[in-house]
Structure formats: C-alpha cells, structure tokens
Amino acid sequence: MQVTAITNYELRINGKIFVKKENKMAVKHVEGSNKKHNVFLYALSTCVWCKKTRSLLEEMGACYDYEYVDLLVGEERDKVMREVEIFNPSGGFPTIVINKEQAIVGFKPEEIKAALE
C-alpha cells in the first residue's frame, strides 16, 4: 500500500481517492430569545474557552452565528482569519463580534453579559 497524498482535501492510497473534503463555509446559526444584537462568534472546535463562550451565549438566550475556524481549509480559512484580524489583530479565540463594531476576545463573562444586555 502506498499513501501518496494526505492533505486537508484528500487521502490517496495507491492512486485512489478515499476521502475528499469540500471546502464549504461552516457558519451555523443558534436561535435565541435575545435578538437585540448581531452576534458572531469565531471559535475553534477544540477550544474549551470557545465552548464556555457558546454555553454562556445560550444561557443568556442570545441569538448568534458561529464558525469553527479550525475546520475550514485553504483560502477559506485564510479569508476568515483576515476577518477575525480586523477585530482582533492577535487572531486569538474565542472572538465575539457584536453589531459588526465591538469585539470581545477571550472568555469574559461579565463583559459579554454587559455588551448583550
């Protein structure tokens, strides 16, 4: 058996493609009762602080969209990272963007609650 290519897009063994990922946007929406703000969460699927942030937003009843940046590949990931860096030049996670003008970086419960009141 000869493995000839393992990339974010495909796995080839003996010239045959076994796994092929499509490069799709992964934005997900969470419905909530608090629709006062436009909330977008940039997160990593393996980040405990990102999970805590999602849990807090859900406890608060926030309506929000989120994207797991680490699950994106290629140009799509690069594009989303450029978006993150507009609000958060260090590129850390979680990054919450509120009303496309305010950003909260990291799990900061009191700051998040105050911003979404």
Report a brief summary of the structure.
This protein is of the alpha+beta class and 117 residues long. It contains 3 helices and 8 strands. A hairpin with a 2-residue loop joins strand 2 and strand 3 (16-20).
Can you describe what's shown?
This protein is an alpha+beta fold. It has one domain: Glutaredoxin, CATH 3.40.30. The chain has 3 helices and 8 strands. It has helices spanning 48-59, 74-87, 109-115, and strands at residues 3-6, 10-13, 16-20, 28-30, 39-43, 64-68, 95-98, 102-105. The protein has a 5-stranded mixed beta sheet, covered by helices on one side. β1 (3-6) and β2 form a beta hairpin. The longest helix is centred in the C-terminal third of the chain and has 14 residues, at 74-87. The chain is globular. The N and C termini lie far apart (59 Å). Residues 1-11 and 19-23 have low confidence and may be disordered.
Question: Cα distance, first to last residue?
Answer: 59 Å
SS content category: alpha+beta
- Contiguous uncertain segments of 5+ residues: 1-11, 19-23
The Rg value, from CA coordinates, equals 17 Å
Strand content: 25-35%
CATH architecture tag: 3-Layer(aba) Sandwich
CATH class: Alpha Beta
CATH superfamily: Glutaredoxin
**Average residue pLDDT:** 84
Give the oligomer, counting copies of the same chain as homo and different chains as hetero: single chain
Based on Cα principal axes, name the global outline. Answer: globular
Order of helices and strands: EEEEEHEHEEH
What count of structural domains?
A: 1
